[in-house]
Amino acid sequence: MKAEAHGRPAPRGGWGRKVLRRGLVGSAVAFGLAAGLALLLHAPVTRLRLPLADTLDAPRPLVWGHRANGGRGAMENSPQAVEIAARENFDGVELDVFYLADGDGLVVAHDDPRVEGAAPGIPIDRFRFPSAMRLWLDAKNIGELSDADLHSFAQALEGQGLLDRSFVESRDLQALQRLSKEGLRTIHWLAGWTLELLPVLKFHYAMSGIDGVSVDYRFAHKVTPHFEGRGIFTFTVNGPADIARLCASDAIAVILTDLPNRRAACPETRRPRTEKTP
Prior knowledge:
The chain is an alpha/beta fold and 278 residues long. 36% of the residues lie in helices and 18% in strands. It contains 11 helices and 10 strands. The chain has helices at 2-5, 14-42, 51-56, 79-87, 147-159, 173-180, 193-196, 198-208, 220-223, 240-247, 261-264, and strands at 62-65, 92-100, 105-108, 122-123, 134-139, 166-170, 185-189, 212-216, 232-235, 252-257. Helix 4 links the parallel strand 1 and strand 2. The radius of gyration is 26 Å and the shape is globular. The N and C termini lie far apart (110 Å).
């Protein structure tokens, strides 16, 4: 052997031990980084106050009708459903909307009207909303819209006097940022990986113009520790015990339900009695 020819003993396991040592150190560093990232992502370091908390400024969560009135006595997402919600004194309603650039513009529909066999959407100008009613608009396709289309989306709401009382929801954060430049209030729908990245996302919200967040009520406990004030929309809550629990939260802004308002409304905040002095 070459090593023996020069009078040197052949190495026995030295290279392997060095590789093993480096591997252990690398694994320890990787584990430390992963553990640190996990702690960062799951620990609410600071509580962010979203603009929505000051926009609604309510002493308790508001209860709004899912797809206007949950399909009780009228087709969901219809003008008649909105009329029922108004009679039941809902503070607001949620509607599913599409913007059809080559069609009727802003329409109310749960399923894409462009798909063959789907029901046509109802143009937003066919709805009559009470002056105090607010709108939660689940915008199904804003991610595919151009800046010109988003401008027309906002103009359609402004033309109906709805711009200042609408909250547009989407999972597409970039599209929401573009839409916020049109003067609309925006709600980022948290689901899947975005729930896990919330500790990072909330700092992005602080700089991006996002007004609030929405979440399936079953995961509200993952979101509420991160926010100060009422900045969270929750959906869709039909259990009286779940509604009562969310009503007690100081971070929930809106509870969406299929129930009649008389069964779902949060109780009035009661002020403590003061003893009369003789």
